[in-house]
Each structure stands twice: as C-alpha cells, then as structure tokens.
Write a structure and sequence with these properties.
Elements lengths: L11 E5 L2 E4 L4 E4 L2 H4 L8 H13 L10 H14 L5 E5 L2 H16 L3 E5 L8 H5 L16 E4 L4 H11 L3 E7 L1 E2 L5 E2 L2 H14 L2 E5 L23 E4 L10 E5 L18 H16 L2 H17 L5 E6 L2 E5 L7 H7 L3 E2 L1 E3 L3 E4 L7 H27 L1
Helix pairs in contact: 2-8, 3-8, 6-7, 9-11
The structure holds pyridoxal-5'-phosphate.
Length: about 375
C-alpha cells in the first residue's frame, strides 16, 4: 500500500448503527461516523436491502441511457432538502463535486477568480485543492492565481475585495461549518453578505456541504440557518452512508449544455439506490430532528466540562479545543473506552456521529468523556506537584 495514512492498529470487521466491532469482537462506539460519512447508521437494514435488490437487477450502465432512479433520487433530494426546483448532477466524491461546481460556475459567468477562506478544505483534486487552505497538500502543478483566500467570517475583507475586483469574481465557495479546519461555523451575516454580493456581481455562491450537509447540522444544509439559498450545493459523505456517491444541486437559473459536465461512474444504478435509501431513511426516521435534538443535548452537557475549551458546532457536528494537559484524551477515548472520535489539527476533537445517534449512546460517550477528562486532569496535577 502507498503509505499516506497514519492508521490505528484496529481491524474493523462488522458495523451496525452507531457501533463497530473489531476482529477480536471488541465493540466501539463510533462518534466519528467514519469521517462524517455514516448518516443513517452503519449497515442500516433498509439501505442494505435496497442495495441488494438493485444489485440483483443491474449495478451499472453508462449515462448514455435512461436511468430512471436518477430522477427519483433528484426528486427525493429536492423534497428532503427543500430545494425542489434545483437540478442534480451526480458524481463520485466530495472533491469531484467541488471540482464540477467550480467549473460550472466559471462556464456560467465566464470568469476565473475563486474566493475561498482561511482554513477551508474543499478536496484534493486540482481546483478543489487549489481552493483548500493547506499549502502542504497543494502540489506545484495545482498552484494558481485564480484562487484568493480571505479571512473566514471577515465581512469587511469580503466587501473590500468585491468593491475592488467584484467584476472578476466567478465564485465564492464556503463550508457552512468548516470540518477539516476545526469546526468553525460561518456566521449568518457572513453568508447573507456572500449572497448579496454574488447577486450584485453575478458571481456564483457555492455552498460546500460535503461534510456539514445532509442533515448533520440539524438542517439539510447548514447554510440554511442563515436563511439564504446558494446557487450550487456540493454533497458527498453522508449522501451514500458509505456507498461512494456525490452530487451537486444546481439552482434553476444555471442552464445545462450537453457535455459541459460528465462522468463514467457518476449516477450509476447502485449508487442511486444507496443514495435514495439514505434520503428515505432520513425522512421516515426524522433524522434531521434527531441530529438537532441529540446534538443540542451533547453540546449542553459538554459545555459543563469546563476543562474543554471553545465548544462550537451545530447538530451532530461538534468540536472543542483540548488543552495541552489533556493531550491524550482522544487516544484514551479510543484505546481505554473504545470510542472513536475525529480530530482537527492541532488540538481539536471533532464529533461527527451517525444522525441516528441515541441519547443512550450520547450518555455513554459523555460518561467516558467526563471520566477521562477527570483522570487526565488528576494525573497532570499529581505530576505537577511531584
Ligand atoms: C468540506 C469538504 N469538502 C470536500 C471534501 C472532499 O471530499 P472527498 O474526500 O470525498 O473527495 C471534504 C472531505 O473531507 C470536506 O470535508
């Protein structure tokens, strides 16, 4: 294997709901959702059934023929997301979704400049990585003057850029809640300003919802909290609950032309069956409401643990800073308490569990968290005295 991932020495062989099991039969609570991918719960029986049924019929045929399940998926997405008149283009990953969105925006207004923000993460392919604020993953060939980074949530800087160069701007791309950047919530007034400036200058507002979308925040798109509609929403992770599928949802004023976008695998029968099952479960099981309710509960309880700093997030996308004396917290939660959590460099713990997380599961996590914070704090105090 090409060694690009620092991995935990754990072999997960089985999964169900918010739990996974390793080859020794050890059970783990998954507060990481396999990196925000598990939306309706691991191996949800309805999702398994629908994929199996589809597999028995046909798994793949190219986009050169009618694939009616694509329209079914588009209709259901319109219904559950509340953007009924938006158009759907299907692809395979978050980076690809952003790549297509940025390209489509440039086709639409014929311009080149992309505004992105500090700590943004939009993927690892050419334009997506160029719009990502992490020079260490940008190869020389990806470097471009077409992307400008402005400070996140800084309305003055954004206004000034548009005042100076608004006619050159093709796109503003922003995560409603930054994930890899450490759970930073875009303010409602910042998102409203983006909407107004994009309207004024005919620029395209791209809402990267790859991590913060699909109900994770308690609303379908976290940008919805600001009461604004983006021109393009990009989505992946939670869309297939682990089946690789992604898409972009496009406002009606952006028109398609044959061959302007395309993909071999995007929108295949099997991926659509998985994605449709996810939306049906989100709908029937009221998972957005659960994300909001269980997320609020977690948030309020974590707030009481005063050793943890700068608690932030919405729904089941929560982050907090871990002070240096608690630096072993994430490792101990995994190795001692068998709980997976996410992280963001340098010292953030990210919670991205299944949207079906129950209060019982939340309490299990909270008990471990309280216990471990207390144990590490005590250990630190004792070491300090001696
Ligand atoms: C906000 C955001 N955009 C895009 C991506 C890229 O998605 P993928 O890894 O599926 O290409 C990610 C992945 O973490 C993400 O968090």
């Amino acid at each position: 294997m090409f060694d690009v991932y620092p991995i935990n020495d754990i072999n997960i062989v089985k999964a169900r709901g918010s739990y996974v099991w390793d080859e020794k039969g050890i059970e783990y609570l998954d507060m990481y959702g396999g990196h925000a991918v598990i939306s309706i719960g691991h191996t949800h029986p309805y999702w398994v059934k629908k994929i199996e049924e589809q597999l028995e019929q046909i798994a793949f045929y190219s986009n050169s023929v009618k694939i009616p399940i694509q329209q079914k998926l588009a209709d259901k997405l319109g219904e559950v997301s509340g953007k009924k008149n938006y158009q759907l283009f299907l692809c395979n990953s978050g980076a690809e979704a952003n790549e297509n969105a940025l390209k489509l925006a440039s086709f639409y207004n014929g311009r080149k400049k992309i505004i992105s923000f500090s700590k943004a993460f939009h993927g690892r392919t050419s334009l997506a990585v160029a719009a990502t604020d992490n020079p260490s993953i940008v190869a020389p060939v990806n470097e471009t003057d077409n992307v400008v980074f402005l400070p996140f949530n800084d309305e003055k800087a954004l206004q000034k850029y548009f005042d100076d160069k608004g006619d050159e701007v093709s796109t503003v791309i922003i995560e409603g809640i930054q994930g890899v950047g450490g759970i930073n919530v875009a303010t409602d007034s910042f998102l409203k300003l983006i909407r107004n400036l994009c309207n004024q200058y005919n620029a395209v507002f791209i809402a990267d919802s790859v991590q913060c979308g699909y109900g994770r925040s308690g609303k379908f798109y976290s940008h919805d909290y600001a009461g604004v509609d983006a021109d393009i929403y990009t989505m992946a992770k939670g869309m297939g609950n682990g089946f690789p599928v992604a898409g972009i949802s496009i406002a009606p004023h952006i028109h398609s032309k044959h061959f302007m976008l395309g993909t071999t695998f995007g929108g295949n029968h099997l991926a659509c069956a998985a994605a449709l099952a996810v939306l049906e479960v989100i709908d029937v099981e009221n998972l957005m409401a659960n994300a909001e309710e269980t997320g609020n509960y977690l948030f309020e309880e974590i707030k009481k643990i005063t050793e943890l700093k700068n608690l932030r997030g919405k729904g089941l996308m929560i982050g907090f800073d871990v002070p240096p004396e608690l630096k072993d917290l994430k490792k101990n939660l995994l190795m001692k308490h068998h709980i997976f959590t996410g992280e963001a460099k340098p010292n953030v713990i990210r919670l991205l569990p299944s949207l079906a997380l129950t209060k019982v599961d939340a309490d299990k996590f909270l008990n471990a968290l309280r216990g471990e914070v207390a144990a590490l704090t005590k250990k630190y105090a004792e070491a300090d005295v001696s």
